Amino acid sequence: MRVQLMLWVSLFGVLWHGCAQSEEPQARRIDCLLVPNAQIASDESESKAAQTQEARLRAANSGHQIKKGRFYVLAVRQYQDDNKGVDSARFAKTTLQLTDASLEVADGQTRDFHVSDGYYSEGGVGFVHRGEYWLARNPISHISATSTTGGLTIRLQQQFVAKHASTGKEKGVQIDLTCQAHTASVDSLGPWEGRAGTDWTSFAPAPESK
To answer: What residue segments make up the domains of the chain, in order of their start?
Structure first.
């Protein structure tokens, strides 16, 4: 199912158009997953005193692991690699736990759903172990869901502040994103999507099978 999106976010510093063409070969991907009977598995201690490489990896992925529960969790994963240099790949992960246990939307209608807990992280895939990434807690207050023939179309629109993990510097982030949601069970999630545990595969999608 084709994902249509229009996104501006300070992570990439450019305006994305899903149908845009580029002279440079680029890898751009967005995964938009609704996980029922789930909740965010977070460990606040991971975001404190991340001094080792392994601890920095875990802190960057804190709040983006999903376990079984009684809510819906929305996992939005963005990946871009312009292939202009070594370690040019960048990631952004947004994980939101919704207050509703059911996402019923009448055909052709749009409803807002409140977010009870949420996490955001972004940075260069090859530099996560150095603490070169940005974090935000509870970045988005609600999502909009529209019922279409293909299922639910999700809209995220919010401005918030993210903090650099190593320096503590703050910056503003603006998200305006629309994507077609796919339903996935907790057991089907991979490291990129939200499986428990953290390693390098948590910050980039798995290569597609040929």
So the answer is: 6-186
